[in-house]
């Protein structure tokens, strides 16, 4: 009877436990990201933007080719951006119009949008300058 093998009656659950722990960690990391709210953006037509600029009280900020922010031909530093938008929002409650030059980077525009959102501005439009 030396040639007979013992039967294996136990299940090793260690690999299964490892997989569940990895899935739990992934879900814990992803869950907070699902709660974030995005911005609702409406892309304006050029005709609407031109009419809106004349008739409404929008904050108009220009993002230049070298990623500077200009409000009424006055440069705003990145540090002062949020405070300036918050002050302007009190005077111009209709929202923010971001005008970009051709070579302005995506990062500069997104930073401006984030600062506007942190300042309480909910209506944001983007157009080419």
Verbal overview:
It contains four helices and five strands, in the order H-H-E-E-E-H-E-H-E. A five-stranded mixed β-sheet has the order 3-2-1-4-5, covered by helices on one side. The protein is rod-shaped and about 90 Å long. 43% of the residues lie in helices and 16% in strands. The longest helix has 21 residues.
N-to-C span: 90 Å
- Proportion of helical residues: 40-55%
Low-confidence stretches: none
Q: What form results from the Cα inertia axes?
A: rod-shaped
List the secondary-structure elements in sequence, H or E: HHEEEHEHE
**Total strands:** 5
Number of helices: 4
Quaternary state reads: single chain
Percentage beta strand = 15-25%
Give the gist of this structure.
By secondary structure, this protein is an alpha/beta fold. Helices cover 43% and strands 16% of the residues.
Topology, element by element:
Layout: H1 14-34, H2 46-55, E1 59-63, E2 69-71, E3 74-76, H3 81-91, E4 96-100, H4 106-118, E5 124-128
Parallel strand pairs: 1-4, 4-5
Antiparallel strand pairs: 1-2, 2-3
List keywords for this structure.
rod-shaped; 5-stranded mixed beta sheet
């Amino acid at each position: 009877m030396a040639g007979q093998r013992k039967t294996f009656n136990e299940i090793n659950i260690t690999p299964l436990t490892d997989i569940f722990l990895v899935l739990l960690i992934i879900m814990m990391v992803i869950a907070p990201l699902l709660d974030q709210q995005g911005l609702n953006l409406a892309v304006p037509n050029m005709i609407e933007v031109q009419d809106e600029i004349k008739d409404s009280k929008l904050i108009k900020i220009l993002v230049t080719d070298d990623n500077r922010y200009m409000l009424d031909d006055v440069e705003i530093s990145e540090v002062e951006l949020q405070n300036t938008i918050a002050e302007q929002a009190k005077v111009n409650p209709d929202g923010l119009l971001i005008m970009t030059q051709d070579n302005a980077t995506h990062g500069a525009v997104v930073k401006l949008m984030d600062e506007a959102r942190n300042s309480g501005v909910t209506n944001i439009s983007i157009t080419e300058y």
